[in-house]
Design goal:
- The chain has 7 helices and 12 strands.
- It has helices at about 1-60, 65-130, 135-140, 145-220, 225-255, 265-270, 285-295, and strands spanning about 310-315, 315-320, 330, 335-340, 345, 350-360, 365-370, 375-385, 390, 395-400, 410-415, 420.
- The longest helix has about 80 residues, at about 145-220.
- It has about 425 residues and is of the alpha+beta class.
């Protein structure tokens, strides 16, 4: 009998150790999945906000040959964001299916546990009915051979009674857990149905946006001559801006460079002290070399050069348009569309090296020097700084101009002297 009680105690001890461990790993798994679901939902909300923002820009920008490519790029971004939402929804639904399967497994396990406890309890009731009547209990105690054995038998009966009470408590607890899991699975199924409904609506919107995108492409194809003329004009404007920027850079290089062959130039070149530069071009001071290094070390972490929401409508470099085979675009920087009234801002500490006007296309422009690096901010209708001003990161520089087609677009470039760099690789 003592062996039986010992075995019973050992089983209870193992259960006490293993059950919390199982619950811990189960809770950890559910917690991890919940975090993933929350992250996916946040990404989906972010993509929806991006679509709403793009839709606003599309409504504000009147269609024309000049703005048609920008509109098409906005639509392409909107379609891509909508597709991202569908991908995220599919991931959420997959996780929800796993969650439902996991809850079902737990529910089956709880059902088996409850059934096992009920069977044990039913057997104990039968034993009480058959053997554990009051008369039997007294007989069981009084028939002991010694007084010590009688005490042990009384203790056993009390422990057996306590065990029965615990079994009743376990049955109630397991039934409560089952009820909670049933509610949990019902909620999960409702959430899944909701996600399926959202996915259906998003898929319909995607089809509508793709149709709109195709219509815009057809429209542009019909206006091929106008579009080619517009691209040619914009290319000339970009070349004019390039010439002005390079002329300003050359002027700075001439201004800072020591006369060729002079003693100071030779000494500086040999010693590498302040005022010398290891490369041809703008001659940096020690402070400017540090600024160059700091700017370079922030590659990929610079803030965007404007204060509000934005969409890039024209990327860097010379590119074949993916939808229009007859269209090839060129950009020394990037064009960023926003809403009217937004300011341009400095992306890093530096000195305003030039404020000038481009007669066609770019309105007022600002160049800020960051040691060897330059940032260019074009198409401003008002300027808040002047040449020689020291500026800090995120300092407002001027108001971005809105054109006759109601498009507010900032032209932005990053250069290392005359070398044109892709701003997307530098911005955060």
């Amino acid at each position: 009998m003592n062996c039986i009680r010992s075995a019973f105690s050992i089983r209870n001890g193992l259960a006490a150790i293993l059950l919390p461990a199982c619950l811990f790993f189960s809770a950890a798994s559910v917690s991890g999945q919940t975090r993933v679901m929350k992250h996916l939902e946040e990404q989906r909300k972010s993509a929806l906000e991006e679509i709403e923002w793009t839709s606003r820009l599309l409504k504000e920008t009147r269609s024309s040959a000049q703005s048609s490519l920008n509109r098409l790029n906005l639509l392409a971004g909107q379609v891509a964001a909508r597709q991202q939402i569908l991908d995220l929804l599919n991931q959420e639904i997959t996780l929800m299916d796993r969650e439902i399967a996991g809850i079902n497994t737990e529910l089956n396990g709880l059902g088996e546990d409850l059934n096992a406890i009920r069977i044990k309890y039913a057997k104990s009731l039968q034993n009480i009915h058959v053997r554990h009547s009051i008369q039997y209990k007294w007989y069981f105690v009084l028939s002991a051979e010694t007084f010590t054995q009688s005490i042990r038998r009384m203790r056993y009966l009390r422990e057996y009674s306590d065990w029965q009470k615990r079994q009743v408590g376990l049955i109630i607890k397991k039934q409560t857990e089952i009820n909670l899991k049933q509610e949990e699975i019902a909620q999960a199924r409702t959430e899944k149905l909701s996600l399926l409904d959202i996915r259906g609506k998003e898929n319909s919107r995607l089809q509508a946006e793709e149709a709109e995108q195709k219509a815009e492409v057809r429209q542009l194809a019909q206006k091929q001559k106008d579009l080619q003329a517009e691209l040619k004009r914009k290319r000339k404007e970009a070349e004019a801006l390039d010439r002005q920027i390079e002329n300003l850079i050359n002027s700075e290089i001439d201004r800072t460079a020591a006369p060729a062959g002079s003693a100071s130039s030779t000494a500086a070149g040999k010693s590498g002290k302040e005022g010398a530069s290891p490369e041809a071009g703008f001659r940096e001071t020690k402070e400017e070399r540090q600024l160059s290094s700091n700017f370079a070390s922030n590659r990929g972490r610079l803030p965007y050069p404007l204060t509000g929401k934005y969409k890039i409508v024209s990327p860097f470099g010379e590119l074949q348009h993916p939808e229009l085979k007859h269209v090839r675009t060129y950009n020394s920087g990037i064009d960023i569309q926003t809403t009217a009234g937004i300011d341009a801002q400095a992306v890093f500490n530096g000195v305003v090296t030039a404020v000038f006007t481009v007669e066609a296309g770019y309105n007022h422009c600002i160049i800020i020097r960051h040691g060897k690096y330059l940032t260019v901010y074009g198409n401003l209708r008002a300027v808040y700084v002047k040449q020689g001003d020291k500026v800090s990161t995120r300092q407002k520089l001027g108001k971005i101009a809105t054109d006759i087609h109601n498009a507010t677009i900032l032209h932005f470039e990053i250069r290392r002297e005359k070398e044109k760099l892709n701003p997307r690789q530098w911005l955060n």
